[in-house]
Design brief:
about 20% strand; two-stranded antiparallel sheet; 6 helices; alpha/beta; about 35% helix; Rossmann fold; six-stranded parallel β-sheet
Length: about 170
């Protein structure tokens, strides 16, 4: 059976809650979950299916010198990830009202780094069910992963996660 690793950050908020819901929805003992701040590329490389989860951040956070969360610290590890034979999926948490011009941008920024390395990606989502102005997570007309807005659309979170995991399971397991 294929091993699934969920890596998320930051801890203590919506992103962590969603990561735990995704693990629970998989209902599979082969799913491990880790905060990104405690993770390394060597840990990621142990998994066949890797799910990365991050909260909305602008590119200034990724490019800034001052680490604002675990993802900034993990960034140098991305170059050490072996993408061969793995499938990557992404989820992003954000607020489509306050951050309508950069809704779940971090998900797109992270995905683009891995795609540039040749990563195979699964779990893209249609944009029709979302309201936003711009997002770096929209690639070829679809979100590169699962967007979650628990601030203004919490009533949709459970169904979105269930549908996304169901699709991943059907294609990957």
């Amino acid at each position: 059976m294929r091993k699934i690793g969920i890596f998320y950050g930051p801890i203590g908020g919506t992103t962590e809650k969603v990561a735990k819901q995704i693990k629970e929805t998989f209902g599979n003992a082969n799913v491990d979950i880790y905060p990104i701040r405690d993770s390394t590329a060597a840990m990621v490389n142990l998994y066949d299916i890797v799910i990365f989860g991050c909260s909305t951040l602008g590119s200034e956070t990724w490019d800034g010198e001052q680490a604002k969360n675990g993802w900034n610290n993990f960034r140098p590890e991305i170059e050490k990830i072996d993408v061969n034979g793995k499938v990557f999926a992404f989820f992003g948490t954000g607020d489509h009202i306050t951050y309508a011009r950069n809704f779940v941008d971090a998900m797109g920024i992270l995905a683009k780094m891995l795609i540039a390395k040749g990563a195979q990606v699964a779990g893209k989502c249609n944009t029709e069910d979302y309201e936003f102005i711009e997002s770096e997570a929209v690639i070829d007309g679809k979100f590169i992963g699962l967007p979650i807005d628990n601030d203004f659309e919490s009533e949709k979170t459970k169904t979105r996660i269930e549908n996304w995991v169901k699709e991943l399971k059907s294609k990957l397991l």
